[in-house]
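Lab notebook page, bench 4
Experiment: in silico fold of construct C2
Operator: M.H.
Input chain length: 255 residues
Purpose: comparison with the prior construct
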Amino acid sequence: MEFKKIALVADVHDAAVKSIEKLKSKYDNVSADEADIIVALGGDGFMLATLHQYMGRGTPIFGMNLGTIGFLMNEFQEDGLVERLQRAEPIDLHPLAMNATDANGKDHSALAINEVSLLRELRLAAKIRITVDNVVRLDELICDGVLVSTAAGSTAYNLSAYGPILPLGAGLLALTPISAFRPRRWRGALLPQSTIVAFEVLDPELRPVSAVADFTEIRNVTRVEVRETDEVRPTLLFDPEHNLEERILREQFQP
């Protein structure tokens, strides 16, 4: 792949700020609005924010890790950036569209690259009915919450909630409970990417629930619908020897 206009963006912490100044002194760069590729310096959180910010433009993003884990990032190197970008391999992500209705009857929509999660707001456990493609599959889940994760997000919150890691080409979503109380032995489900999942909050006044799509939180929801969207397809770029599919596979063998 050949890119002629590179934009450099960075997180606000010291390491990222110092690194972007060094790169700007070595490579020609333009604003993100003009670029045909964006190089993001930071951690996974900054990459997620960058993906959301430029999702509608379709500009591919190459991340270099200056954070903690860097699951969505490549190794940081000052030298050879242009050559790395030319060799980089693209991976298209498949975001989720969340449509939520709050207690006042107002509708909200947001996109999620990692997951859509429902979470209890107070000390009382949430009670949630789960419908899959218009069929009620779980009449009442008593829990701290529940989430729907993409393959790319399956190693994030989903994994912390003991959900499965999904290979990118599996064509699946993970439906994962968060601290389920009843049914006690339910551990979630694997669903086709085309599935529409709907959550109905039971007794929302006594047991309020919030819905979160990556960074967007809607409080006091009564109903949430989640489906994959084909309106946007963010593209990540990875070094050939260290791509996201390999990372997901490797993560499944971590002790």
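Observations: Helices lie at 14-26, 44-54, 81-87, 157-160, 244-251. The chain has five helices and 17 strands.
Next step: discuss at group meeting.
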